[in-house]
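Late entry, pyridoxal-5'-phosphate complex.
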Amino acid sequence: MHSQLQSIDSLAETSLLHQPQFVLRPHTLKRSAEYLQDVFQGTHLFAVKTNPSETVLQLLYDQGISSFDVASLEEVKLVRRLFSDVTLYFMHPVKPRYAIRQAYHEFGVRHFSLDSEAELVKILEETDHATDLNLHVRLSIPNNFAELALAEKFGVNLQDAPALIKQVAQAAMKVGVSFHVGSQCMHPDAYRIAMRMASQVVRQADVMLDYFNVGGGFPSVYPGMIPPDLQSYFDAIHQEFANIPNHESMQLLAEPGRAMVAESMSLIVRVEMRKGDYLYINDGTYGSLFDAGTPKFIFPMKLLCKEEVYSTDLRPFSFYGPTCDSLDHMEGPFYLPSDVAEGDYIEIGQMGAYARSLATAFNGFQCADELIHVSDEPLMTMYGDNKAHSAHEKLEIIAA
Ligand SMILES: Cc1ncc(COP(=O)(O)O)c(C=O)c1O
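Prediction complete; structure with ligand written out below:
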């Protein structure tokens, strides 16, 4: 069950929000899923880690998403419990043996990723040398254009990749390559470069590929981080794909997370104390606002309207979260009316990606379980008539 409201502002009229409160805008998921499927000449595997809410997964499934990138046995079980007819891609390159065994034998998983010979051996042993495996070799590709790099930890280096691909091709029914350009990738050229590198490696391996997976990384929009139009990312991918030898016999895959769900949720937090330009709020970096802490993302926000009228003068604030730890600090700047005070509620937008899934219960602080649905528009969007212009387009508009 969930409550349904027309607009997020009506939440401020109730004083019942004891805990930080997530709010879902279902229509934005319809919009992003429709757009991303229309614009891509391949199959999207939704990256479940980004937002494993059952409501979100169901809405995406209803929009035709039928392939899911899962990273753990728990995610395998979750998606399989909800949908018996979808394809699961277990794309974590280092999996526990029990997870491989159960995923294959109990949950029908036939797609696995790997970045080493040792993982190949594990997959073969735990599936009892299955002959129906689809194996995806994860390549390490530079993450120069991304706000959050993911290349250090996973991926076989490009020198060793051809030999591994050859080896995998001998063991698998079908073989693919995958990479991740890094999350919140700010330029489509990242995909061009990665695809050229991957294509070169495949040529060296001299193997006929079945899958070419361009991974995640598609951006959302944040204050001060306005990416080019998503269309330009897919144009780049399609152009590069057309240049890859034998691409006609390959299936093109992508693993969008952030771009699919970021704008679908907002978080409502309460100001518990103001000390000068510091606001002490009831959620923080150990909760749903990890990305406002270490990677220092600036999220869009606004005060929820109450009866009194706020100043139109905006001022930069930093936040402290509710826990005892000084690391529970979000530098900002977060622009809010200069007279913001204790007891005010703030809507923080673009909270649909990674926010809820990264939250801990440290110090006993947790957000409310219930998800409130609203039908108004998000604070920022990449889609539809109100989409943010890219910085490039903005310059052209100013110059005109
Ligand atoms: C293997 C894999 N695929 C897809 C994603 C989703 O990435 P993004 O949210 O940047 O689209 C991630 C995120 O970490 C990932 O590790």
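The pocket of pyridoxal-5'-phosphate is lined by residues 47, 50, 69, 91, 150, 180, 183, 215-218, 255-258, 353 (CB under 6 Å). Will revisit in the morning.
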